[in-house]
Amino acid sequence: MAPRSVPEPVLIRGTGLLGTSIGLGLRSAGADTYLSDPSPSAQAVAVDIGAGRPFPGDITASSAASAAVEAGSTDGTTTGAETAPVPGVVVVAAPPDVAGQVVIDSLVRFPGAVVLDIASVKGAIRREVDAAVVGGHLTPAQAARYVGTHPMAGRERSGPVAARGALFTAAPWVVCAKEETSPEAVSVAEEIARVLGATVHRMTAEDHDASVALISHLPQIAASLVSSRLQETPAQSLALSGNGLRDTTRIAASDPQLWVQILAANAPDILEILYGVREDLDRLIATMEEPTAPGARLDIAQLIAEGNAGHARIPGKHGAPPQAFAVVTVIVDDTPGQISAVLQDVGEAGVNVEDLRMDHSAGHEVGMLEISVLPGRKQDLTDALTAQGWKVV
Ligand SMILES: NC(=O)c1ccc[n+]([C@@H]2O[C@H](COP(=O)([O-])OP(=O)(O)OC[C@H]3O[C@@H](n4cnc5c(N)ncnc54)[C@H](O)[C@@H]3O)[C@@H](O)[C@H]2O)c1
Ligand SMILES: O=C(O)C(=O)C[C@]1(C(=O)O)C=C[C@@H](O)C=C1
Question: Which part of the chain is the ACT domain (predicted)?
Answer without folding.
Answer: 327-393
